[in-house]
Amino acid sequence: MASTVEYGETVDGVVLEKDIQLVYGTANNTKINPGGEQHIKEFGVSSNTEIKGGYQYIEMNGTAEYSVLNDGYQIVQMGGAANQTTLNNGCYRFMAQRMIPRLKAGA
């Protein structure tokens, strides 16, 4: 089932498990568990997202800030931005122009 964060809307503390979230507005403090997906659309912003076995897709002109990957996936399409991503465990794939990953000690 998909939920949508509309332009100008802000949501906080959503847990995605076997759900899809389409972000056109702002999503803060989201947890993406196995089976969950977050799609950050054009001009959408996701901040402080924890990815545990799910997927975060950052599309053109979408932005993710301060994401933490724990056995999750972050896919950045051309023109998307992922700023201050922390990699604990998990896969990190990108196709964007500018990435600023931050590795945690022991990762």
TrEMBL record:
Domain of life: Bacteria
Protein name (Swiss-Prot/TrEMBL): Outer membrane autotransporter
Organism field: Escherichia coli
